[in-house]
Each structure stands twice: as C-alpha cells, then as structure tokens.
Design goal:
Multidrug efflux transporter AcrB transmembrane fold; four-stranded antiparallel beta sheet
C-alpha cells in the first residue's frame, strides 16, 4: 500500500494547526448545536411495531392486519387484574375502577365484561346443572328469612330474628340472610346477603378483569406514561373492598416498563462508561493533554451525532437510543490510535503529524469503512429498528474520524503533551514467539467450543427481554398460568359460527392449548332445563315481589333489645358470647345519635339492592347470542359476520420452546393466526432473516475493504480468523451461561465482524509496515489495548441496564470484545509470524515480533 501523504491531508493538518483555536471552537459549537437540535426537534417513538417492516406477503402479517382492522378494540390495551376473597368483592371493585378510569380524560374506554347488566342478570344460566340445583335449594331454604326481614328491614327486626334463631337452634346451618345479619350486628357494620354466592365455596381467590384503552402520546419520551399514571392514580383514589388487590399488565403497561427501563439503562450506562473511560485513559495514557483532547472529541462527537440522528432519522426507538452509550467507547478509538502514534513520536510539528497521518491514515480509514459497513448491514433489511441504530452509529463513526483528524492537530498544537519515547521502549525480556503456546491452545479448544456454539438458540420472545420480576410481567405470567385471556392470546377469525365451532373442537385436542373462547362461549348450554328449574323457585318468590300490604307499626328498637336481652339470658356457650358481642356493638351505635339511623339506612339500602338483584336472577329467561348486548357482540362478531376465537396457552409463554409448540400446533389447524404471540413469532422469523442478510452484507463488505487495503488473500483470511474464533468462543460461553440470542443482542454478530476486525487491521498494519521511529510498534499495541478496553468498558456498562435486551447486548459484546482482544494480540501475531517466516508474504518483514511484546 502507498503510504505517501496526499497533499490535501498535509494542507488540512496545516490548516488545523494554523487556526487551532478557531477549529476547536467550531467543533465545540457544532457539538452544542447538535445537542440543541436534538432537544428541540427529536422525539422518542415507542411504537414497537416500527422496529420491523415485514413484507405484506407474509401470512401472519396479513392475518394480524386483518384482525387489527376488524377488531380495533383489542389494540393498545391495558389490563387491570382485580382479585378478591369473594366474587362479589372482586366485581364490586372492578365496577368502581371502571368508573374511576373513565372519569379520567386520558382513558378512552374501560370495559368490564362481568359488569354488563345482561350478564349479571343471567348468571344462573352459567352455572352447571349441579351448581344450579344447589343454589336454588339454598334460595328456597332462605325464603322464609327474606320474607320476615322484608316486613321491617332494620336493626330491630334483625335483633328479633337473631334472637329467635339463636334460642331455637335446629341443627341446620343458618339461612344466609340470618347469618349475614348476625355478622352485621356482631361487627357493627351494616351488611346483608339476600342469596347464596354463585361461586364455589372452596375457592380461595376470585378474579375479575378491566380492559382499558387509551391514546398514546408517541411524541413523548414515555408515550404510555400518562395512561399508566392515570390508571395508578384512579386505583389509589378508589376505595376498594377489604382484601381486594389490583395488578396492571397488558401491552400498554409492559411497553411503558420497557421504555422506562431503556431510558434508565442509558443513564446508568452513560455514567458507568464515563467513569470507566476516565480510569482506562488515565492508567493507559497518563497524559492530561491527550486525555482532555479525547474527552473533547467524545462530547463534541456525541453532540454532532445527535444532530445527525435528528436529520437522518428524526425519531428514536428503544434500540437506536443505544448509540449514545456505544459512542462513548467507539467514538474515541480513532483518537486513541492517532494520538498514541503522534505521542510516541515525540514530535508535534506539521511534518510529524503528516507522517503520522501517512502511517495511520489508511488503517484509520479502513477501520472506519469496516465499522460503518457493520453498522449499515441492517439498513437494507426488514429490521428497520436496528437499521436506524446502524445508520446513526455509522454517521457517528464518520464524525469520530473527522473530529480525530481535525481536533488532534489543533489540540496538540495548543497543548502539546510531554516527552513519551521512554514510555514505549521495547521490553528487554521480549521473545520471538510469546503467543505461540496461547495460540496453540486456542486452536485446540476451537473444535470443542464450536460443538457448544452450535447449540446456542435464538429466542424471539419480547417477553424474554423484559424484567420477569416486574409487577406487570408477574401479573401476565399469572394470567397465562391460569389460562386467562390476555393480549398474548392467539386470535383466529372464523367466517361463521359453524367454522368457529369446528375450529374450537379441533384446537381443544392440542396439548399446548388451554382455554378457547368463541362467541358461543357466552351462550350457556342446557338453558331450557335450567329455565324450568329456575321458574319453579321463582314462583315461590312471587309473593315477596308482589307484597303491597300496608306496613305494620314498626317495632321499636328498645322493645327488640329487651326481647334480645331476655333471650340472651337463656343462652349458653358460644351463642351467649355472640349475643353479648351483638349487644355491645348496638350500645356503641346508640352513643352516636346518627349511628342507629345511619346503620338502618345502609342496611335497608343493601337489602333492597339484594332483593332487586335476586329478582332479576330469578326472572331471567333463556337467551341466544343475538340477545346479548351490542357492546359484547361487537367484541366477538364483526360487521362482516366473522367470529373471533381467542386461544389461551396451557402454560405461560416465557420461552421459545413453549411458544414454538403453541404456535406450531395451532397453525397446523388454523394457519391464519393473529395477536401478540403470533406477531412476535412472525417478527422472530423476520429478524432471523434480517440477521442472515446483515451478517452476509457485513462479511462481504469487510472482505472487500480488506482486499482493497492489503491486496493479498492470505492477509485477509488471517485478519478474519480471530473474528471467527471470537464468535465461536463467545457463542460457546453464552451457551454455557444459559444466554440466548434475542431480538436485541442479535446485533452482536455483524458488529463483531465490523468492529473486531479493527484491532486486526492495526496489528497487521504495524506488522507489515514497521515503524521507522523506535517504540511505535509498542505504541500501536498499547493503542489497540486501550481502544479495546474503552470499547469493552462501554459495552460492559450496558450490563447494568434494567432493560434486559440492552443488558444482553452489553454482556455478549463484553465477552466478544474480551476474547477479540486476546486473540488479536496473541493468535494473530503468531499466525502472521508463522507465515512470514515461511515466505508466504514475499520479503520477510523486519522485527515482526515487536508487535507481540509490551
């Protein structure tokens, strides 16, 4: 390669030295201008759908787009999962939350399926025949208590009824109404139960669901934050029954958690990167002027890259935001190499800088080209989110090189470093083949590593990149484990009711399938027989509904208390203690003039509410799907008559194996699937294809650049060997650590090809173009080590991100860069020396082993 300096480079360096202060001021202002442009014009788009641009011809994409268009109410939803000790408490809480949610201007709609009056009135028809028979028997057993309390629904009558029941125990359980009255009088809290619960008595926890939709603010850093804040505020301000808990999950909540984690991760990683960068540069360079210059290039480069990103992309996504952290390590690489070359020479004149450019310039340009190609490799693929990250990062690499060639001569002219030649003297203990044993060991380990590397799997699940311990993820996993409907259910559109029934029958046989909901699931079976049995009990209650007789003179409370005290004296044991507790509670109420009045009012309201609810239950008739409210029908059958099936997995979809089985089994029967599980599975296929394309583009681009630079096939292969070994060992270690490739860290593979080759370029460049000045080869090795460590530190800082995708990128790249450094400084020099000593490169290079020694 021709190492002579083009005149324009010499002129540019001279210009930067002559107007050093002005050039630094311009670079600084451009950096500030980029930051201001970013602050005023940029936006964060959290629409995860924008990360992928799949082909319209893909079946899953067509199916999901059709589902979104025909059932838009299922898009962008949050779920409030209400759990309570009784069904009544859970449903009371869900109704209260529905009102609180809809009172907020942020929330567009809150839907509670169980709160529909029609469903409430027809609850008896959803019981099994055995459950219905038991409930109706209880209603008939409780009839007498209701009739008696109906005469005077207050404390006085409750005391009389309690006295009669406690003094004449029948050995049978108390009717539910008497039991609730005794409990109410004992606790001093007004409560009445007019009929037996409709839920199984042995259930420990009951469940209800509120489905919420709201409008995202995609121009805000956290577009779902306003919705989440409104939901949490409504929950905090709502008085819930005792023992009721509320969990939030669903797409809106999970996306908000993810973006919040990504932003927090960038802040953490940025701080850690700065600290590590300062430590590495301080220990590695030990020259304040050069360290200050590198930080100037870093901050100016970040500002200019932010401005470039706004102009090139406009909005950022959860992936493209990572470039800010990546620039901390990658943006200083060129400055480290160039500054160390100039520093080692000990001369900062125009002639010395020109020689340094002539020596280092081709290698720096080649590194820029290979890194840019690696970053741009995703741009032509359907993985648009990664493509945007690549475009921004590629622009950052070009900016970093331009700043290096501009700021370095200007800065060193104004603030030249001290003498450095002694710092880079060749050690006296240098040997000719210090890396041979290590290189041999690496080669011998490679087949074993390759065996384990081939076992590494790709996990396309977005859930695997989220914090499994977050409240929203735990709530989702719990719903899936219970086979409850979530936005990770599979949606299937059937052309009519007949096909829906046929699909349900076939899908129910699959081992990975849990619950299946169709429109007909809302229409109970055996309604005719149930209605006849209900009518028999309803006839018994007709007298209660039609009571219009003139009310008798109310029994005074004092009379009732006297009667109760007289009865109490005849009781013993638990009954007597219970009677004493009831009297004590009434005495406390009597101390407040409004106590008895308020208690009676609330008790009467509860009684009449229960009476009306019971009447509606016993008066309901059998029904068909067309009788359901329109709000329910529209969520299950669209205007074209298509029926919606929602298929729940039998187990939580938290790993690829379970998801693959679930998707594959359903597709064997119904290929046209939709919903988040189907979308993530389909996106996984797109990402794998994009990865294959990006890896091919990166590899071919790097090979072409290396060939144009070295013009020797063997040299190109030797530079690529450490990259291949790096990937093999990285994958093997990842498999051993239980790490899988996901939609975020898949970036690592083409990135390692582009960035990993940089160290090899510098090592090979110095090997074949030995320095004419003493110590420069050692300076090259130190520059390779320092730049590798700064890159390593940057990616290591991502490990601390709460965003699991970013953390996995950091972990894999930390492994890869560490391995790459070892291989570039041991295996590559050994290979170069081996082939050079045997004449494969023509004339033997003088002092080739200098590059392997420190």
């Amino acid at each position: 390669m021709n190492l002579t300096q083009p005149s324009y480079l010499r002129n540019w360096i001279g210009f930067c030295q002559r107007y050093a202060a002005s050039m630094l001021l311009i670079c600084g202002l451009l950096g500030v201008g980029g930051v201001l442009l970013f602050i005023n014009q940029s936006s964060l788009n959290s629409d995860l759908g924008r990360l992928i641009s799949p082909s319209d011809e893909l079946l899953w994409y067509q199916s999901n787009e059709a589902f979104k268009a025909r059932f838009p109410m299922y898009q962008q939803t949050a779920l409030a999962v209400v759990r309570g000790p009784s069904l009544a408490s859970a449903q009371t809480a869900s109704r209260a939350l529905k009102g609180a949610f809809e009172a907020s201007s942020i929330i567009e709609n809150a839907f509670v399926p169980s709160a529909e009056a029609f469903i409430q009135d027809h609850r008896l028809y959803y019981l099994s025949p055995e459950q219905l028979a038991d409930w109706l028997s209880g209603a008939e057993y409780n009839y007498g208590a209701l009739v008696r309390f109906d005469e005077q629904p207050d404390i006085a009558n409750a005391l009389l009824m309690a006295a009669d029941m406690l003094s004449n125990p029948s050995g049978l359980p108390l009717p539910i109404s008497i039991e609730s009255l005794i409990s109410s009088l004992t606790s001093g809290a007004p409560y009445f139960q007019g009929f037996y619960p409709l839920e199984p008595v042995n259930t420990q926890e009951f469940f209800d669901l509120v489905i919420i939709s709201g409008q995202q603010s995609l121009d805000q850093p956290l577009p779902n934050a306003a919705i989440v804040e409104a939901l949490n505020r409504a929950i905090d301000q709502t008085v819930l029954p005792e023992g009721v808990t509320v969990e939030l999950t669903g797409e809106i909540i999970l996306a908000n958690e993810e973006i919040q984690a990504a932003l927090t991760g960038i802040e953490i990683a940025g701080f850690v990167s700065l600290v590590l960068l300062a430590i590495i540069l301080g220990l590695g360079i030990k020259q304040l002027s050069i360290i200050t210059m590198i930080f100037f290039i870093l901050f100016a480069g970040i500002g200019m890259t932010l401005g470039f990103a706004v102009l090139a992309v406009g909005s950022f996504n959860t992936l493209s935001m990572l470039f800010v952290v990546m620039f901390f390590g990658l943006g200083v690489d060129f400055a480290v190499h160039f500054a160390m070359r100039v520093y080692a020479g000990g001369d900062h004149s125009l002639e010395a800088l020109t020689r340094a450019i002539g020596d280092m310039g081709p290698a720096l340009l080649l590194c820029t080209a290979t890194s840019t190609i690696a970053f741009l490799s995703f741009l032509p693929t359907a993985y648009s989110g990664m493509g945007e990250l690549g475009l921004i990062s590629a622009g950052g690499m070009v900016i970093a090189l331009t700043l290096t060639l501009t700021v370095t001569p200007a800065f060193l002219t104004l603030w030249p470093p001290g003498q450095a030649k002694s710092a880079f003297k060749q050690p006296k203990h240098a040997t000719s083949t210090p890396g041979t044993s290590l290189a041999l060991g690496i080669v011998l380990l490679a087949p074993v590593a390759l065996f384990f590397a081939t076992k590494l799997e790709f996990n396309y699940s977005v859930l695997s990149m989220r914090d499994a311990q977050s409240p929203a993820m735990q709530a989702l996993a719990r719903l899936q484990a219970e086979s409850k409907q979530t936005d990770y259910s599979i949606a299937i559109l059937a052309r009519d009711a007949a096909q829906a029934a046929e699909l349900k029958s076939s899908l129910s046989e699959l081992p990975s399938v849990g619950d299946i909901r169709t429109p007909e699931s809302l229409v109970p079976s055996a309604q005719g027989a149930k209605m006849l049995r209900i009518k028999t009990t309803a006839d018994l209650y007709n007298d209660l509904w039609s009571t219009d007789a003139e009310l008798l003179e109310p029994i005074p409370l004092a009379v009732a208390i006297d009667y109760f005290e007289e009865t109490k004296s005849q009781l013993s044991g638990d009954y007597q203690r219970q009677a004493e507790t009831m009297l004590a509670a009434i005495e406390r109420l009597q101390q407040d003039p409004e106590g008895i009045t308020g208690f009676n009012r609330l008790l009467g309201e509860r009684y009449h509410q229960q009476k009306a609810e019971l009447r509606a239950l016993l008066s309901a008739n059998a029904f068909t799907f067309d009788d359901l409210p329109k709000t329910l029908r529209d969520r299950l059958v669209n205007s074209q008559g298509e029926h919606l099936l929602m298929v729940q997995p039998a187990t939580a979809l938290l790993d690829r194996t379970v998801t693959d089985q679930f998707i594959g089994e359903i597709q064997s029967i119904a290929p046209q699937i939709a919903g988040r599980s189907a979308v993530e599975w389909g996106i996984g296929e797109v990402v794998v294809e994009a990865f294959q394309q990006a890896t091919l583009f990166a590899l071919l681009g790097v090979i072409v650049c290396l060939w144009l630079y070295f013009k020797n096939g063997l040299k190109v292969v030797l530079v690529l060997i450490p990259i291949a070994f790096t990937l093999i060992f990285t994958f093997a270690i990842s498999y051993g650590m239980g790490i899988s490739i996901n939609m975020a860290n898949i970036l690592v593979i083409p990135l390692v090809i582009g960035l990993g080759v940089d160290a090899g370029i510098h090592v090979t460049h110095r090997f074949f173009y030995p320095a004419t000045e003493p110590g420069l080869s050692a300076a090259t090795q130190r520059a390779v080590l320092i730049s590798g460590l700064t890159t390593l530190g940057t990616f290591f800082s991502l490990v601390f991100s709460p965003h699991q995708g970013a953390a996995s990128i950091g972990l894999l790249l930390t492994l890869a860069i560490s391995i790459m450094l070892v291989l570039s400084l041991s295996l590559l020099p050994t290979l170069l020396t081996f082939f050079d000593q045997r004449g494969y490169f023509g004339q033997t290079v003088s002092k080739p082993t200098e590059i392997m020694n420190t």
